[in-house]
Amino acid sequence: MDLHLTAVWTTALRTRVPHASWLVAEEGRILTAHRPERRFASASIIKSFVLAWALDEVHLGRLALDEPVTVGEGLRADGDGVLRLARLPTVVPLRWLLELMVAVSDNTATNSVVARLGGVDVLNERLDSWGLRSRMRGYVSRAGTPASDREAISADPGLATEAGLGVTSCAEHDRVLCALYAGDIAGELGPAGIAMMLHQQDRRSLSRFMDDRARLAHKTGTVDRVRHDGGLLLAGDRVISVQAFTDGGLTAEWVDHPACVGMGMALAWTSELLGLEVGLVPDAPPIPDVLLAPLDSVSHTALSDALEGSPEAETEAEAEAAVWRAARDDPNG
Q1: Beta strand pairing status for 68-71 and 19-26?
Q2: Fold of the domain built from segment(s) 3-302
Q3: 126 and 55 in contact (C-beta within 8 Å)?
Q4: Average pLDDT over residues 285-307
Q5: Is the distance from CB of 5 to CB of 268 less than 8 angstroms?
Q6: 40 near 156, Cβ under 8 Å?
Q7: 283: closest CA among 215, 206, 209, 208?
Q8: Nearest-angstrom CA–CA distance, 312 and 14
Q9: Which of 51, 144, 221, 315 could potentially form a cystine with 45 if both were Cys, beta carbons 3.0 to 4.6 Å apart?
Q10: Close Cβ partners of 333 (under 8 Å, ≥ 6 residues apart)
């Protein structure tokens, strides 16, 4: 792994939130990672898996993207999205339900897609057939029948947020998105799914320091103390998978949440270190000089040992204190 990239992600994330996992890879080669297999409460990240499932069903000829889907009153869900404001029942083409589910994380659209495709258990069977341990536990806002093994589906021990909508990991989100991009899931429709993810409207985290030239196909997830963001950064002929999952930070859903800021800094700095022309906003924070220092064999070993032994913040108070210390000590702040 690239030690400079590891230092960047450690600096940006592990000192800001109690629990952080990440994975940055290119063409299957891991550039930096920290506990990518750890299973978190998924929040809306699970919707990427629903997207893959739906497109695979279309690829297999079992339904069509233009097929009208009934959005019933019983599928209405609070929270993100616009369909919750509509007069129901109504009919919406599957394609637009998927677009809404990804771009604005529409919960009612998600429920409608899952219901049309057979329910939560059918989704989980498909995930199992793909060799994944990610699972959906139920419909959003309890609309519909939950997974039959709902109580057995849980996040890994020690994390602050219990599994709600589902569970997943950086590693498995990476696998599904890369499989879609390559057409290994959903065939020729796989890349179309990635194109849908380019329409993501939540720019608080990974894309917060990128301008409109950047092409980041991603999905975010927020619930309680969870803040997730993961996708594929399309930079010229290079495709960089970037997954960042966090838990245990502040519950307030504000734009400058420490985890969100940390993810944005990490990806901006990663883009610079990898020489990617992705388009950053003028006020993107520069990489601290200490993270750019050349590493001889001695300093490489010392930094590696320091990063390996660097503890995550154990409590919300420690995480918040770390953010304030970083702001105080930042010469650019």
Answers
A1: unpaired
A2: Beta-lactamase (3.40.710)
A3: no
A4: 68
A5: no
A6: yes
A7: 209
A8: 5
A9: 221
A10: 327
171, containing H or E segment = helix 170-182
Exposure of 115 in the CB half-sphere (CA atoms within 13 A): 21
Secondary structure (3-state) at 163: coil
User: DSSP readout, 286-313?
Assistant: PPPGGGTS---HHHHHHHHHHHHT-PPP
Q: How far apart are the C-alpha atoms of 190 and 55, rounded to whole Å?
A: 7
- What are 89's two structure tokens? 């029942």
Beta bridge partners of 107: none
Token duo for residue 255: 């734009």
Between the alpha carbon of residue 330 and those of residues 99, 285, 287, 323, the distances in Å are 40, 10, 11, 10
The SS3 assignment for 135 reads strand
Q: Is 203 within 8 Å of 212 (Cβ atoms)?
A: no
Distance from first CA to last CA of the chain, Å, rounded? 30
Rounded distance between C-alpha atoms, residue 332 and residue 222, angstroms: 29
Of residues 197, 270, 274, 204, the one with CA closest to residue 232:
197
- pLDDT above 50: residue 264: yes
| Total residues belonging to the chain | 333
* Spatial separation of the C-alpha atoms in residues 319 and 87, rounded to whole Å: 43
Neighbouring C-beta atoms of residue 90, cutoff 10 Å: 14
Closest CA to 108 of 134, 87, 137, 135: 87
pTM of the complete model beyond 0.85: yes
- Stated as kind and residue range, the H or E segment containing 127 is helix 120-129
Q: Which among 76, 77, 111 has a CA at the least distance from the CA of 97?
A: 111
Burial (0-12, 13-18, 19+ Cβ within 10 Å), 223? buried
What average pLDDT score do residues 20-35 get?
A: 96
Confidence of residue 39 (pLDDT cuts 50, 70, 90): very high
